Known about the structure:
Order of helices and strands of chain B: EEEHEEHEHHHEHEHEEHEHEEHEH
Structural class of chain A: mainly alpha
Radius of gyration of chain A: 28 Å
Shape of chain B: elongated
Number of domains of chain A: 2
Strand order of the largest sheet of chain B: 6-7-8-3-9-10
Radius of gyration of chain B: 22 Å
Strand content of chain B: 25-35%
Largest interface: A-B, 24 and 29 residues
Oligomer: heterodimer
Mean pLDDT of chain A: 83
Largest sheet of chain B: 6 strands, mixed
Distance between the termini of chain A: 25 Å
Strand content of chain A: 5-15%
Number of strands of chain B: 14
Helix content of chain A: 55-70%
Number of helices of chain A: 14
Amino acid sequence: MTLTRNISAVVRKECLHILRDKRTLALVILMPLMQLILYGYGINTDVRHLSTAVYDQDQSSLSRRLLQALEQSSYFDINFRVESSHELKQLVDRGDAKVGINIPPDFTRDTLSGEEGQLQMVIDGTDSNPANSALNAGQSIITAFMEREGLIPVRARPIDFRPRMWYNPDLKSSYFMIPGLVGFLIQLLIPMITASAVVRERERGNIEQLLVTPVKNYEFIIGKLVPYIMIGMLISTLVIGTAHFLFKVPIRGSVLLLSALTFLFLIVCLAIGLFASSVAQNQQQASQIVLFFASPSILLSGFIFPRETMPAFIYYLGNIIPLTHFLKIIRGIILKGLTAQDLLPQILALSVMAVLIIGFSIHKFQKRLG
Amino acid sequence: MNDPAIEVRNLTKKFGTLTAVDNISLTIQYGEVFGYLGANGAGKSTTMRMLCGILAPSAGEGRVAGCNLIRSPEAIKQAIGYVSQRFSLYEDLTVLENLSFYGQIYGLSGQRLRERITEVLKTVRMDKWQNRMSGTLSGGMKQRVAVANAILHRPKILFLDEPTAGIDPISRRSLWELFYQLAQSGITLFVTTHYMEEAERCQNIAIISRGRVLTQGEPARLKEDIDGDILEITCQPVMAGARAFREIPQVKAVTLYGTNLHLNVEKGADITSRLREAANREHIQIESIRNIDPSLEDLFATIADDPNA
Lengths: 370, 309
C-alpha cells in the first residue's frame, strides 16, 4: 500500500510542476508539431520541378516530343530555351538552371538510322541528392519515350530490368521522414525533460528534504518518471495522428503494436534522461549530456542518411543508438505493416538497453543520494 | 518517556581518510532545545545526517526517538522532522500543495490531511498564506512553512540545520519563539547554528570543532567554567591592537567585537601594564579596559583557539 501511496503522491506533485511551467509544456508539445509541419510541407527531399534549360539544335518533331515527355513527368520544368551551348553552360553555372539539355543537330537522323543517338544532359551536381534523382528520372523517362516511339533502343538489353518501388511507390520523402521524426523527437525531448526534472530536485535542494522522509528511492524515481511517459505517449500520438490525417501517411501495421513499442522506446529514453541526471550537477549540464548523445544519433541512426552505405565501424556504432532500432520499428510498422515477429531483433535490442541503462542509472542515482 | 530523545555513544564518520565526526557522544532529553555549535565544516551537518538516519555511521551506536541508529534508520525517518538551512520545499508549488505532498508521503490523506495542514499552519501563523506560491514568500515565512511541513506527522524530534541563516533579526526572534512553543509541546529541538546569541537561548549546547565535541552542557555553566578572565578593550587602531596584544604571553585569545577587542587572559593575571607598554610601542591609543562576564562567543573563541583542545 505504501508503494502506490508514495508513488502516486510523487506523480501528483510532478504533474503540478509540469502544469505550472506552462511555457515548457507548450514548448514540448508544440515543438514536435511544428517540426512535423516543417517536414511535412517544407523540407521535401523529393526532386520535382527542376529548373531546366534546353538547347534544341535539332528542332524536329521527335526532339519536341521528347522535351514534352520530360516536362510532363513534372521532374523537369523547361524554363529556358537557349541558342548556344555557351548560354546553356552559363545558366547552369549561375544556378538558374539545375539541368541543361543539349540536343545535337543530327539527333533525329542518328536515332532513326539506328545509330547511337546523342543527347547531352548537364546536371548541377553540387547537391548530390537532386542530381542523382534528376539523372535517374531523366534516364527512365528517355528510355520509356524511346519504347513508346517504337524506336530501337540504343543498346540491346539482354535483361529486361524493370525496378518497382514497394511500400512507398511515389518515393515520398514525407513517408520516410515523418515516422523517423517521431522517434528522433522522442529521443531528444524525453531525456531532456526527465533529466532536468530530476536534476532540478537536487539543484534546488528538494532532495535534501525528501531524504529524511520515508519515501524510497525507487518510489521517487518511478513517480518522477510516470508523468513523462504520459507526455511522451501524448507527443507520439499527436505527431503520428497528424501525420496520418494531415499528411496522409498510411499506417499499414498494428496501431497497438506501434503504441506498445513506442512505450518501450520511451522507457529507454527515460533511462537515458535518468542517466544524464545521475551524472549531471545542474540542469544545463543535463541537457548538454542529452544533446551530446542526441546529435550523433541524427547522423548514425539512419534518421536522414541510409546506414547501409556507412563504413562497417560506423554502421555497428549506430547499433548502440536506441533510435536506430526504433526507426526500424516505426518505419516497419507504419510503411511495411511489419509484425512483432519481424521486429524481434529490434525489440530485444531496446529491451536490453532499457534494463542496462535503468539498472546503471538507479545504482548511480542511489550513490549520489547518500 | 523517561528514555532520552537522542542518546548516541562514540559516533564516528569517516569519508576515506577524513574523519568528519570523531567519537561524539550526546544525550538529549525530550522537550529540550539543544544547540549544536561549530564553524562551517566542523561536522555539524554530518552529525545531523547520521542522527536523521540518512548517513550510516562508521562506528558508534545509539538511539534516536527510541529507534536504533544502526539497525532501523528507516524507522527514525517517521519519527523525526527536518528543516534545512536552504528552503527545500518546492518553490513552484503553493504552501498548501507542498504540505499536501509531504503529508501524503507521511501517510496522511483526505480529511485528516486537511485538518492537520490547517492545524500546523495555525501553529506557525501562516494559515492566511496557504495559497501563496512558496517561492514568493519572504525568508522568514519560508522557514515557518518549512517548520510546519516538518511537524505535519507529529515527530518527536525536530532537526533544524541553521534554520535562521540569512534571515532578518525580527523574523529570527519570532522563529525562536516558535521553537520554544514547539519544545513546550514536548518536541525535542536539535538546532545547529553559528549565531552565538541563539546558542544562549538553548537549554544545552555542544560545541564541536574538527569533528570533535570540545565541550557540552548548559550555556551558563559552560561560561562559568571558562578558563581565564575576559577583558574588553577599546582602542585605536583596533586591528593593530589585536596583533600587538596577541604577543603578550598571558593572553590566550584575542577576538574582535565591532570596534572592541575581547581578550581571554589567564585567571587573575594583571596585564594592564603590559597592555599599556605594547600600546605605546605600537602607537595604539587605549581608551578603556574593562573586566566583563564572558559570553558564549568568548567561550567559543577560547576553546577553539586552544591547541590542546
